[in-house]
């Protein structure tokens, strides 16, 4: 059995260059998605309901909430408002 090969300088350089080329827009998109996942889970309190909401087309939003939030800050705010509205409706039906 031969020892594993050490990474070459060329492979390290490619990895380093890739991280420099990472778009700040991608980081912002991921941040919005993370915030939304936390908000939805806190609102629904159930993992399966949260996943279903985030990944299913929402007629009120006209898109999948997770995708809409990733696209722009305005999309995130629209989904956030919808989640809060849904929570308010749920609170109204509580005994």
Beta-strand fraction estimate: under 5%
What's the Cα radius of gyration? 20 Å
Q: What are the low-pLDDT stretches, counting only 5+ consecutive residues below 50?
A: none
Give the N-to-C terminal Cα separation.
68 Å
Computed structural class? mainly alpha
Provide the succession of SSEs. HHHHH
User: Which geometry do the CA atoms define?
Assistant: elongated
Mean pLDDT: 82
User: Helix segment count?
Assistant: 5
**Fraction of residues in helix:** over 70%
Biggest β-sheet strands, sense, barrel: none
Number of DSSP-assigned strands:
0
What does this 3D model show about the protein?
The chain is mainly alpha-helical and 95 residues long. It has a domain at 27-92. The chain is built from 5 helices and no strands. The protein has helices at 9-21, 24-44, 47-55, 65-71, 73-92. Helix 2 packs across helix 3 and helix 2 packs parallel to helix 5.
């Amino acid at each position: 059995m031969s020892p594993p090969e050490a990474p070459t300088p060329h492979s390290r350089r490619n990895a380093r260059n890739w991280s420099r080329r990472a778009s700040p827009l991608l980081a912002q998109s991921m941040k919005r998605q993370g915030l939304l996942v936390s908000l939805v889970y806190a609102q629904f309190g159930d993992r399966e309901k949260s996943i279903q909401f985030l990944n299913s087309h929402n007629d009120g939003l006209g898109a999948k909430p997770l995708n809409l939030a990733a696209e722009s800050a305005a999309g995130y705010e629209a989904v956030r408002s919808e989640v809060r509205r849904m929570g308010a409706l749920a609170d109204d039906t509580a005994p």
